[in-house]
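From the pipeline queue, job 12 of 40. The input is one protein chain; the requested action is below.

Action: predict structure.
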Amino acid sequence: MSHGRDDSEAGADASAPDAFEEDVLTLMPALRRYSRSLARSDTDGEDLLQDCVEKVLARRQQWRGVNLRAWAFTIMTNLYRNRHRHRALHPEVEYEEALGLVAEDQNADPLQSRRLERALERLSVDNRSVLMLVVIEGYRYQDVAEMMAIPIGTVMSRLSRARRQLAEAMKDDNVIALRRPK
């Protein structure tokens, strides 16, 4: 017996994404930026993003209905920390790298982007994480403290240190003009 819907409507509802999945989809650009900043590479960042989204969807029932964005960023931060610890204990060497067959990157970044990327890479993971969450993603200090399970004072000092180190790195890499002033 049908209760006001036919079978085609029920099938359509089962395949349509629900509000939770739609909310996760809207987080994808921010999660992608954060994953790439943590991983320091597009491919590792994409792997981290995929693992994070998979975990968010699999643990949906653990979400308490408050600030999905912060919850997803916390999961990503913890995934990265676990992966980073594992790699420190079990270093990997790519097959092509071991054979000396690594190809040059065909798509070189513009000079300014590369300088910024190098400056960000020089930051510690903790400082870079705080910088990305506050400056790029727009989180409040208290939110970042909760996500990273650290005191708010630590967030502020890491952010200050990251900004100072970034400014120094960018200043040190400045290109010197080859023309004399007139």
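Job complete. The two ends are 90 Å apart (CA to CA).
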